[in-house]
């Protein structure tokens, strides 16, 4: 390297970010980014502190309010952040908590026995990423306040009034910094789902959530004395259940175990694991303990009662979990998580503690409920037979695929590249649209798989019947990942799997059927961000615009009725002429399909994600399950939002 190209690197290039400046420079390290998910995470961080107070038995009410100016207040009736001087730093404890990373009462000082916040960066990170934040504390009959701007104190801790001598608590109010966040609007439903979850997992807590932004403010209250038992009932409320929930509430050594288990007549299992009120999407030792105990206890009971003979194989975990909805929630004094995002619980002793609690409670329940146990065992036997049939069907698919040109289905038009990172596959509705897509694609990196008609509704179909369906066989072999417990994302042949259906009601139905399949049998593919939805236009119009005093006509694509209405309002009805309405993708020629829907430089694709697995599970069951009444209520409620083909 020549001297004039050398990069000078010396002591002067070493920087130290003081205080909360590190959070403002690298928000992704502390709250996961600057998108909508991170924006909502700001609220969760503050509410989590109040939930921690509830877990100590010091708080039973939390009030959350989104104000008209988009600021958010979180109030609780907990102990209140201490306001006296912290001796080591010589400043009030509340100032220390709000401005110093890794400061708090959760590091073994005796303030908290069980907590979800382990790093002491939550509320201080929120403070750093807010235009302003105000902390009020009720203690000792006084109301204290301190104000911060972008994490820096702009007032001292001051007494601004008196409070009830018996009242304590904290009120945190903050306004997110719009110079940092890309998304600025809070979603009421997203927040409400999380608060509902918190209330289910914290018996005795009442959470009130108010949104003052609409003309008619919205308010919702959550309080569930049944704890996780109520949670399971909520998840199963659109399903036909086989028995009342099996409820476990026990302390085993240093671990508190709360769980609820209930079987339904469906084919999927829905199990959600929490540690110290934090959802652990990748499970961990508490989930392993639950699964192991259930499988062992059902097998032991089945052999004892003669449902399984000496020569019969034991039920597998898959057999004992089919149609099961379960919640496992543990409270651990020193939880160990995998990663900053706490995706997985690692404490080895928790597995034994959960296994012990579940086995003891289930053993007693089994003896007291023989009729319900007979239904559960019969459910397991049906699952066993279906699993054997599915294994044979899967083996047939694999053997058949091995004989068919490198495991690829004949209808697949593959791409020439063999690098999965740059490849994508379009799952297309129908042979007509498939033919157009094959002509319009970039053959180097885009593959096309046309599906004929509507695939099976997985929510109402057992796995063996699903695997016998030719369209599902083609989908599985094309992707190369297998499904269910055998799913392996390393086998994925395409980095992006794009669902491309017609922009009409039938297309929406087919897309929902496909989403159900991916959610139930290829969930890791969704979680890792490989699934997308194409956005084909609904109209091609000629729009007349005024430029420099002259009328100029141009063809434009409009993607839905709402966008068409906005365009008409902007230009006037007479200035917008509909040239073509694309009821199906096959009505476009190959150039139009490429230009609008497949060209990476022009297209819009929506990435599918799962923000709330429990709510996604409930929604798929409601829309695609066997119960008609919940679906009818949903359709009736949202009928005014429907798009009709006329």
Report on this model:
It is built from 20 helices and 24 strands. The protein is of the alpha+beta class. The protein has three domains: about 200 residues, 2-Layer Sandwich (Heat Shock Protein 90); about 160 residues, Ribosomal Protein S5, domain 2, CATH 3.30.230.10; about 170 residues, Rossmann fold, CATH 3.40.50.670. The strands form five sheets. Strands 1, 2, 5, 6, 7, 8, 9, 10 and 11 form a nine-stranded mixed beta sheet that branches. The protein has a five-stranded mixed beta sheet with strand order 12-13-16-14-15, with helices on both faces. A five-stranded mixed beta sheet has the order 18-17-19-20-24, sandwiched between helices. The longest helix has about 35 residues. The chain is flat.
Topology at a glance:
Elements: H1 21-25, H2 28-31, H3 36-55, E1 61-66, E2 72-76, E3 85-86, E4 91-92, H4 93-99, H5 122-128, E5 130-139, E6 142-149, E7 152-153, E8 158-162, E9 169-176, H6 188-201, E10 206-211, E11 218-222, H7 228-235, E12 246-252, E13 255-263, E14 270-275, E15 278-279, H8 285-304, H9 317-321, E16 324-331, H10 348-368, H11 370-403, E17 424-429, H12 431-440, E18 446-451, H13 463-467, H14 470-479, E19 496-500, H15 505-521, H16 523-527, E20 531-534, E21 539-547, E22 550-558, H17 561-571, E23 576-581, H18 590-598, E24 605-607, H19 613-624, H20 628-637
Parallel strand pairs: 1-10, 14-16, 17-18, 17-19, 19-20
Antiparallel strand pairs: 1-2, 2-9, 3-4, 5-6, 5-9, 6-7, 6-8, 10-11, 12-13, 13-16, 14-15, 20-24, 21-22, 21-23
Helix pairs in contact: 3-5, 3-6, 8-10, 12-18
């Amino acid at each position: 390297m020549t001297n004039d190209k050398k990069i000078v690197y010396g002591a002067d290039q070493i920087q130290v970010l003081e205080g909360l400046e590190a959070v403002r420079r690298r928000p992704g390290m502390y709250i996961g980014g600057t998108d909508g998910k991170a924006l909502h995470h700001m609220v969760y961080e503050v509410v989590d502190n109040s939930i921690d107070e509830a877990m100590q038995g010091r708080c039973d009410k939390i009030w959350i309010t989104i104000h008209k100016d988009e600021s958010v207040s979180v109030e609780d009736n907990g102990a209140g952040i201490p306001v006296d001087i912290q001796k080591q730093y010589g400043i009030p404890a509340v100032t220390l908590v709000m401005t110093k990373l890794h400061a708090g009462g959760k590091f073994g000082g005796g303030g908290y026995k069980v907590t979800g916040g382990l790093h002491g960066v939550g509320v201080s990170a929120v403070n750093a990423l807010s235009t302003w934040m105000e902390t009020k504390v009720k203690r000792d009959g006084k109301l204290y306040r301190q104000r911060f701007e972008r994490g820096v104190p702009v007032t001292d801790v001051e007494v601004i009034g008196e409070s009830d001598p018996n009242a304590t608590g904290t009120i945190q109010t903050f306004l997110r910094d719009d110079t940092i966040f890309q998304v600025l609007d809070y979603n009421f439903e997203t927040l409400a789902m999380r608060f509902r979850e918190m209330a289910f997992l914290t018996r005795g807590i009442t959470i009130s959530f108010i949104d003052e932004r609409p003309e008619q403010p919205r308010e919702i209250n959550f309080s569930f004395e049944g704890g996780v038992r109520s949670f399971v009932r909520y998840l199963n409320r659109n399903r036909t259940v086989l028995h009342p929930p099996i409820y476990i509430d026990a302390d085993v050594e240093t671990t508190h175990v709360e769980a609820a288990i209930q079987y339904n007549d469906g084919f999927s299992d829905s199990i959600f694991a929490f540690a110290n009120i934090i959802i652990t999407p990748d499970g961990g030792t508490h989930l392993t303990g639950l699964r192991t105990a259930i499988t062992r206890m059902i097998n032991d009971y089945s052999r004892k009662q003669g449902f399984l003979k000496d020569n019969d194989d034991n039920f597998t975990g898959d057999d004992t979990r089919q149609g099961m909805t379960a919640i496992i929630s543990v409270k651990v004094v020193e939880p160990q998580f995998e990663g900053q995002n706490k995706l997985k619980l690692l404490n080895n002793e928790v597995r034994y503690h959960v296994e012990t609690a579940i086995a003891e409670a289930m053993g007693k329940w089994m003896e007291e409920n023989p009729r319900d146990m007979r239904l559960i065992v019969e459910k397991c036997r049906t699952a066993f037979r279906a699993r054997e049939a599915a294994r044979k069907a899967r083996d047939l698919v694999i053997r058949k695929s091995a004989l068919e040109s490198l495991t690829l289905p004949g209808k697949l038009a593959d791409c020439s590249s063999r690098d999965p990172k740059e490849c994508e596959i379009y799952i297309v509705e129908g042979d007509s649209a498939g033919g157009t897509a094959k002509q319009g694609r970039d053959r180097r990196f885009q593959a096309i798989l046309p599906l004929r008609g509507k695939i099976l509704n997985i929510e109402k179909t057992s796995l063996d019947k699903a695997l016998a369906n030719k369209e599902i066989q083609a989908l599985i072999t094309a992707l190369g990942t297998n499904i269910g417990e055998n799913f392996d994302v390393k086998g994925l042949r395409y980095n992006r799997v794009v669902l491309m259906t017609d922009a009409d009601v039938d297309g929406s139905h087919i897309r929902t059927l496909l989403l159900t399949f991916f959610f139930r049998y290829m969930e890791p593919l969704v979680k890792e961000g490989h699934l997308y939805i194409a956005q084909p236009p609904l109209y091609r119009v000629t729009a007349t615009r005024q430029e420099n005093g002259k009328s100029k006509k141009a063809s434009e694509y409009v993607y839905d009725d709402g966008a068409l209405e906005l365009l008409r309002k902007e230009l006037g009805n007479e200035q917008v002429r509909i040239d073509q309405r694309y009821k199906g993708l096959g009505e476009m020629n190959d150039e139009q399909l490429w230009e609008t829907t497949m060209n990476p430089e022009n297209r819009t694709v929506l990435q599918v994600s799962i923000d709330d697995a429990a709510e996604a599970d409930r929604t798929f069951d409601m829309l695609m399950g066997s119960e008609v009444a919940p679906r009818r209520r949903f359709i009736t409620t949202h009928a005014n939002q429907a798009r009709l083909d006329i």
